[in-house]
Design brief:
2 copies of one chain form a homodimer. By secondary structure, chain A is an alpha+beta fold. The first copy, chain A, has 2 domains: 136 residues, 2-Layer Sandwich (60s Ribosomal Protein L30, Chain: A), CATH 3.30.1330; 176 residues, PurM-like C-terminal domain (Phosphoribosyl-aminoimidazole Synthetase, Chain A, domain 2, Alpha-Beta Complex). The first copy, chain A, is 34% helix and 25% strand. The first copy, chain A, contains 11 helices and 13 strands. In chain A, strands 8-10-7-11-9-12-13 form a 7-stranded mixed sheet. Chain A has a 4-stranded mixed sheet with strand order 3-6-4-5. In chain A, strands 1-2 form a two-stranded antiparallel sheet. In chain A, helix 2 runs parallel beside helix 3 and helix 4 packs across helix 5. The longest helix of chain A is centred in the first third of the chain and has 18 residues. Chain A is globular. The two termini of chain A are 34 Å apart. At the A-B interface, helix 1, strand 2, strand 3, helix 2 and strand 4 of A face helix 1, strand 2, strand 3, helix 2 and strand 4 of B.
């Protein structure tokens, strides 16, 4: 089968008929798209490389899901409604079974968020996937990293550290493990392989949050970017970081803060909210299907600082860095 | 230097202050962009993989140029005005000199076309580059592959075969070569390394051409896609394919048709024009800085057929195919 037939067959189902604004989808030199009037567009590209952004043994369907999820997470952090995406897929060989799995995972998440695949490229090389995602927001309403103000509370959606702990428990539970452990490890792995982009939470926070960022490299590093963009500092209480049941069961005390604050791959949102909006923001995010937990507050001292039980403690300052941590992650 | 500082330093100059529609460029989870009112957007992603889309010894500046050029060529084929782009760069290591060269080549072409870099990603892995380019056209005016009608003439911009011949003459000319040969080979190599996307020609052809496609995989294959999309056939005269002086000097008679029709990497436009618009189209493209040459016509017989001196001949039917020609190109 030639390249063109292969692309057509696997991806033809990903552009639903009548998708909003799609005048012409896959099959020409470029897609023709009609942006919604009086809206701004939000646009992001993220690449996943095998062995770096997902373990080599990851199932094709999970890779397809995650390639789209990391981009939807960026749109979520801007408070954007997903519209369209493009998929640039580099593969070592034309593997029909792999492509079917990849497409199934990608399509499941695309359908859940009503995002239409409108173009892309397929080429041969070491496995890597770049997705470009486009969303929209009424002009002037997109969330940014730069809007945090002294006195805002710092919140996160969902729970932190699950994916990072899942990555450290790649092997299946031992045959002797209890049923609870088997269940916990599967839950942690699911958070690593199939992250849930907080699109509905991001939409709910428009007009309520003062600043937002998605957590891909870990809370410490990503919140650090938000603080730098806003020109403020923050103090975070390590005991307030939300944990899943599986994480609470499986993580050892001494590793919790590192996993939750510098482990990466959470794909939760970290947002700053003026206190007057907090109750409304928590209600709105709860209605979207996850919790919004207060973890600290914005102040006018420099950088990110950590406390526990009212005492300042040393804590992580950086997230995952691609070019510095090659030896550890390569 | 960490990933973030590295990205900032090299790419900060590529988002000119006051670029049209850029509300927020690089540095947040997504760019915020205001599309021009009453326009449609044209969007495309193309990936270049080292050793596949460019020779391994290609200079970083030429790779940067070409990564953007192949995407601008897609916008050109739609008759789009370039607006914004995103760059997903996967690199085996953080190499400051390489990045400086890459950025210089990318920036030179971006400035020439007024396209602003608004986002992207940098990660570690085998060298590959995915650019997503966005352009605009007044609603309903974008060129498509599907509009060719029986009786239209088939035209191409510029000259064909130069890059394909340049790829076969990768070694510098022998010391004994005459000055003309040295000059010719440099000219052919420049066409391979720094293709000229026909953006101005594409804009000039809006309202005049009935269909268009860019020539990346070779005339035979790409025109074949246009014919299939339009539901028509064509007869092309091999003697009419436009040649550069360097190509005419350096190509052997027996290899010319294969290089010009199936060599790939031309990044010229192939367009269909109703005869009533031909003179105006040729004048408009000439004003944009290149020639528009008639090479055949659209008819109602199936597929692409070739003739020479009034006689039907066998000719190429397919272009470069990524997944079938791995052994030859890998």
């Amino acid at each position: 089968m030639d390249e063109f037939a292969l692309i057509r067959r696997h991806f033809s189902g990903l552009t639903p008929a009548g998708a909003p604004g799609v005048r012409l989808g896959i099959g020409d030199d470029a897609a023709i798209l009609a942006p919604p009037p009086s809206h701004e567009l939000l646009m992001t590209s993220d690449t996943l490389v095998a062995g770096r952004h997902f373990p080599l043994q990851t199932a094709a369907a999970d890779i397809g899901w995650k390639a789209l999820a990391v981009n939807l997470s960026d749109l979520a952090a801007m408070g954007a409604q997903p519209l369209w995406c493009l998929l640039a897929l580099t593969l070592p060989a034309s593997d029909d079974g792999w492509l079917a799995g990849f497409t199934e995972g990608f399509a499941a998440l695309a359908r859940a968020h009503g995002i239409a695949l409108v173009g892309g490229d397929t080429t041969r090389g070491a496995l890597s996937i770049t997705v470009t995602a486009v969303g929209s927001a009424p002009a002037g309403t997109a969330l940014r990293r730069s809007g945090a103000r002294v006195g805002d509370v710092v919140c996160v959606t969902g729970t932190l550290g699950d994916a990072a702990l899942g990555l450290r428990r790649l092997a299946p539970a031992a045959p002797s493990a209890c049923a609870q452990t088997v269940h916990d490890i599967a839950a942690l792995r699911a958070r690593l392989d199939r992250p849930t982009p907080r699109v509905a939470a991001g939409l709910a926070l428009r007009g309520l949050a003062s600043a937002a960022i998605d957590l891909s490299d870990g809370l410490a590093g990503d919140l650090g970017h938000l603080l730098a963009a806003s020109g403020v500092g923050a103090v975070i209480d390590a005991d307030l970081l939300p944990m899943s049941t599986a994480f609470a069961q499986q993580a050892e005390d001494g590793q919790r803060l590192a996993l939750q604050a510098a482990g990466g791959d959470d794909y939760e949102l970290c947002v700053c909210v003026p206190p007057a909006h907090l109750a409304e923001a928590q209600t709105a995010v709860a209605a979207s299907g996850c919790r919004l937990t207060v973890i600290g507050c914005i102040d006018d001292l420099p950088d990110l600082r950590w406390q526990r039980a009212g005492q300042m403690i040393a804590g992580p300052q950086h997230g995952y860095r691609h070019f510095e941590s090659a030896a550890a992650h390569g």
